[in-house]
Design a protein that fits this description.
The protein is an alpha+beta fold and 228 residues long. Helix content is 49%, strand content 9%. A 4-stranded mixed β-sheet has the order 4-3-5-6, covered by helices on one side. Strands 1-2 form a two-stranded antiparallel ribbon.
C-alpha cells in the first residue's frame, strides 16, 4: 500500500535539498552541461518545474503534456533563464504540486501519465520524488547516488525491477546487494545472470545513470537495459 501523504512529505524535503544546493550556483553554472547528454543544468531545472505542473495535470484529470513536442519546446524555452528565475520556477511549481496532491481525492483511482502509461494516483507523489532525487544527482553539483535516502534507493530499485519484469529485451536477471535480492527481466527457468553490487551502483545501472562497471556479473555479460 502506497502512503501518498508520507511520500508527499518526502518530495517536499527532497525539493528543499535540491533548491538549497542549486542556490549555491551562479548564472554561468546553470548554462554548463549536466550529467544528462545534451542538457545543461538549466534544462534539468526547467524540466523539474514543468514536470511538477504536468503531474498537477495528471492529478486533476488532464493530459500530462499537450504533446511530446510541447513538452520539449517548454524545456528548451525555459532552460536559458538565469538562476533566480530557475529557482523561483522550481519552488513555485513544487508548491502547486504539493497543493494539488494534498487535496482530498480518491487515491485508489487510476491516472494516465505519458505515452499511455497508467498508474494508481497514490503512486504519483513517489513518481515526483523520483524526478527530484535523480535529477538532483543529474545536476552534477555534489549530490550522488550514495547520498540518496536509503528508503528511496530501495523503493526505486523495486520500482525499476518491476518496470523491467517480463520485458522481452531483458534476460532473466537476479540482482543482489549481498543482503537482499530482486528478480527482473524475462521469465525463464534457472537463475539467469546474477548482478552484484552496492545499492547505489545497482540503482545507477537500472536508472541509466551508471554503466555498471562497478558491478560484478555471473552467468553472462551485463545486460543492456532499454531506455526509461
Amino acid at each position: 500500500m502506497m502512503d501518498h501523504a508520507r511520500d508527499l512529505a518526502s518530495v517536499r524535503d527532497a525539493t528543499e535539498r535540491l533548491l538549497t544546493a542549486a542556490a549555491k550556483l551562479d548564472n554561468a553554472a546553470v548554462t554548463q552541461p549536466s550529467r544528462l547528454p545534451g542538457w545543461t543544468r538549466g534544462h534539468v531545472l526547467a524540466h523539474l518545474a514543468r514536470n511538477a505542473d504536468a503531474l498537477v495535470n495528471v492529478l486533476q484529470g488532464r493530459p500530462m503534456y499537450a504533446s511530446a513536442q510541447a513538452r520539449d519546446a517548454d524545456i528548451e524555452r525555459d532552460a536559458p533563464r538565469p538562476l533566480d528565475a530557475q529557482l523561483a520556477d522550481v519552488r513555485d511549481s513544487a508548491a502547486r504540486f504539493q497543493e494539488a496532491a494534498a487535496a482530498p481525492a480518491d487515491w485508489s483511482r487510476t491516472v494516465e501519465l505519458r505515452n499511455g502509461v497508467t498508474d494508481s494516483a497514490s503512486r504519483v507523489p513517489f513518481r515526483r520524488w523520483i524526478e527530484v532525487e535523480l535529477h538532483h544527482v543529474d545536476l552534477g553539483i555534489g549530490y550522488e547516488l550514495e547520498d540518496l535516502p536509503a528508503e528511496f534507493t530501495e523503493r526505486e530499485i523495486e520500482f525499476l525491477v518491476e518496470r523491467f519484469s517480463g520485458h522481452p529485451d531483458v534476460p532473466p536477471v537476479h540482482l543482489t546487494d549481498g543482503r537482499r535480492g530482486w528478480r527482473t527481466g524475462r521469465e525463464a527457468e534457472g537463475l539467469g545472470v546474477t548482478v552484484r553490487g552496492t545499492r547505489a551502483d545497482l540503482l545507477g545501472w537500472l536508472a541509466g545513470r551508471r554503466d555498471g562497471a562497478a558491478l560484478s556479473v555471473q552467468g553472462g555479460p551485463l545486460p543492456t537495459l532499454p531506455p526509461l
